[in-house]
Design a protein that fits this description.
single chain, 194 residues, alpha+beta, 5-stranded antiparallel beta sheet, two-stranded parallel ribbon, 4 helices, 7 strands
Length: 194
């Protein structure tokens, strides 16, 4: 099988495309959630007598604020990753895949930890495909197209998952200590430093 050559610039370009796509998803979900939630809180104020409106509206208002705060935190994390990528503060490492799992994501949708994590997927009742690495831990394969900058191997999350085997070596784009942003299978790609 012919390997495609990866460069730091190609990885950087794909990282930026991926992160901007995630930011767009956050903004869309934030607006989809915020507008109806604001209308419900507003109607609650209007329909309930003034004596009880503040007390009864506190719960929905606090729920709306907590969820909005979680979206804002997630957006800030992604903007920080964008900054790190733009300033070339990410590493390319090789790591061995030690496990892979399909994880049903229905209840993860409600988890606060997942809501503010860097790569939560907002698809209800779907499978998330995870790869586990020896040194860098867990990576949830993005649902949008993977290897977008590749001329030969652009594929969906399911394709990346099915092609990966336990024991395969991967090139990982890593920020901070062990936050994996992208993975590239060494069976498909050969990394050359610029």
């Amino acid at each position: 099988m012919k390997k495609e050559t990866l460069t730091r610039e190609k990885i950087k370009q794909e990282l930026l495309l991926s992160l901007y796509s995630d930011i767009k998803k956050i903004l869309i979900h934030f607006l989809i959630f915020l507008l109806p939630a604001s209308a419900i809180v507003y109607l609650g104020f209007k329909l309930i007598s003034f004596d009880f409106s503040i007390f009864l509206a506190c719960l929905p208002i606090s729920c709306v604020l907590i969820i909005c705060f979680a979206y804002i935190i997630r957006a800030v994390i992604l903007y920080r990753y964008i900054y790190l990528v733009k300033t070339d503060n990410f590493r390319i490492e090789t790591d061995e895949c030690v496990d892979k799992k399909e994880i049903y994501a229905r209840w993860d949708y409600y988890g606060f930890k997942k809501l503010i994590s860097a790569y939560n997927h907002y698809y209800f009742d779907k499978l998330n495909y995870h790869l586990f690495f020896m040194v860098n831990g867990d990576y949830c394969i993005k649902r949008n197209k993977n290897y977008v900058c590749s001329e030969m191997y652009t594929m969906e999350a399911k394709g990346v998952y099915r092609y990966a085997e336990v024991g395969d070596e991967f090139y990982l784009a890593v920020v901070n200590k062990n936050t994996i942003l992208l993975v590239y299978n060494t069976k498909l790609f050969d990394f050359k430093e610029n």
